[in-house]
Amino acid sequence: NQPLAAIASYATASINLMVREADDPQTPAMVRQAVTRIAEQAERAGRVIKSVHDFVRRREAAREWVHVEQLLDAVLPLVRLQARKSGARIEMDLPKGLPRVRCDRTMVEQVLLNLTRNAIQAMDGPTPLADRALVLRVRRLQPRWLSFAVVDHGPGIPAEVARQLFTPFFTTRTEGMGLGLSLCRTVVEQHGGAMDFESRVAPASPTGTEFRFSLPCEDAPGAAPGTGADRLPVTGSGESSA
Question: 64-241, what's its fold?
Answer without folding.
Answer: Heat Shock Protein 90 (3.30.565)
